[in-house]
Amino acid sequence: MNREETSRTLHERVRSFIETSVTGSPTETFDSLACAIARFQAEHVPTVRAAFQRADLAPSELSESSKIPAIPTDVFRLRRVAAHPETSDVRIFATSGTTDALRGRHAFRDLETYRRGALRWAERMLWPDVPSLRLVMLACDEERAPESSLSYMLARFAERHQNGAWFWDGERLDTDGIVAALTEPSNVPVLVLGTSFAFVHLRDSLPSTLPLPKGSRVMQTGGFKGRSREVAASELRRAIAEAFVIDETAVVAEYGMTELSSQLYQRLGDDGVHYFAPPWLRVEAACPITLEPLSRGTEGIARFVDLANIDSAVAIQTADRVVVDDRGAVSLLGRMPGAPPRGCSLALEHALAAEG
Amino acid sequence: MAKRIANADDLLGIRARARLIELGDLSREGVELALSEHLETTATEAEIASFVGRAEEAAHCAVILSANVCTAALRALAFGLATAPLVRVKASRRDPVLAELLAGELPSVELVYTLAEATANLHLGDELHAYGSDATLSALAPHAAELGLTLKGHGTGFGLAVIEADDPVEGSALALARAIVPFDGRGCLSPRLAFVAGDAARGHAFAVSLNASLERAGQDVPRGPLSDEERAELRLFLRTSELLGEIWEGPNHLIALDASAEAVTPAPAHRGISVVSASSADISRLLTPWRAFVTAIGSQKRGGPLACAASRVAPFARTSTLAAMQRPPFDGPVDLRRLDGQLTGTNTRSR
Q: What ipTM was estimated for this complex?
């Protein structure tokens, strides 16, 4: 098989894994699929090939996903990490940042696997109990932000629910529009989605609370990444719940990043601390000094194996500090000091700062 | 007073050395190098005139210091005193040594340890001089704005070295190593990125020579002990760099060579340096993402094509020879970017 055929076959295998693993009966093992993807990448992605060489590991001998050499997220800022030529790109997602920051870029040859995974895990984590929701997005729409993986994902959610209104135009948050949308008489529960900073800004500018219909919920994503106006996660969760007059357990945080194709969520009705990955994404804590995997329950920096990263790097090393417990639940503890600021909140925060 | 601190036989010099060695950020030899060779003990009249000219007048001034460079308190306090007759200085909790010694000798300087104490009784029009990371400055900005203070921030930055096509490889590597070693590369002028003119082979030859120079320098002046966080930062940088090019890791330094860079990133402090093969045509593309952070450009001689291209991208950076990168003239604050009006992603000058 040539490169494109192999990629296409791997996409099909991963989609099948997504559809079957979410119901608990995957068609094949995580490790076998992860290793097949890693072998493909070692052949066609120069930085992945270099990582195998540095690890003195022959791709053909790989049998465990935990042994796949992980590519640090910074590599996405410095090199194209892709198994395909630029002419085959259907989309490039880029990290947000201030205008002068060096941005990480993640090129995609095929977005269907991304779409499938994002929807299946959101169905499980964001709307497991209701067939339909009214969507209010404190984010830029896909047309205005084609490089935002968050906007891409939210657009797919809007398609799924056949509705969705966007209240961030790239320069300012439309608070009046949000108030109008959320005070419309309707019993359909609402899902409000946006970045942490957008929620802080909305909360600061709301004259009063905005009670949402029963069954409504909120998804917030992105931290503050060492930027100004940091709000503690628990404080933000409480503030959002108070603003929309909903229970705190209806506010769930999402964790996603440009370099990944899959997302983690907190659980509705849960404690607001732990994040859960889908079956096609594994998270391990790695020792920050040796980068070797650590046992469950030990604090380290997050190493991801994301089966949906087919045409880039299946194993990713971040500088985000985590603890992964025996259930596989992930506690996020912030970024390692010295790591450059990064994240979805930054583009919005930068523009809002410029407003003032 | 600076001369007394620089003097290893003076009581002040003895106390400074003892306390800085005990602090453990730098090795004993690193402390000696910092105090004897990098503490500002001389200045020309023209430099002093320039220094004073860069200050604005205010009734009161507070100075917030960071811990990165153990000698930084001297110039920061002098700039505060050029601004206002009385200066309140908040020393870094981690490294208060020079600030405490200077405040103990200067009646017009009051030493405090909290931000609240530093800004107590400051009013509209007073100045707050802050030295630290951009994140620290961002956190200070609302406080300064609330009090109506003029915030003069000196944030995240690094030095850039350029090696022109006709510069001698060995001599340039030696000069660059001498600029990397002081303060273990933690200073905002410390070179953490080097552009080398020529092809990949010349970049490689330069990195090999720099490695040898840094090894020798490390024997004379060992790097101070690294914290776990610093080791982790270096490890991730090393892992990234080894996938993009070559690395040289010594007991006291780390060099990353990228001979075909699409983009660049400066190395972490602690004597790390990114070496990149580049032509003057590449400089704008490679350096523009970092232009707001370049505080100093060092080169063996003035007017070379790489240095000129770099200065066009970062016009507010200090320029000097490689060897003088860590010895800026006493003509103003070390970091001239914000004072000369450059706008960066972090707004560090607000009222």
A: 0.87
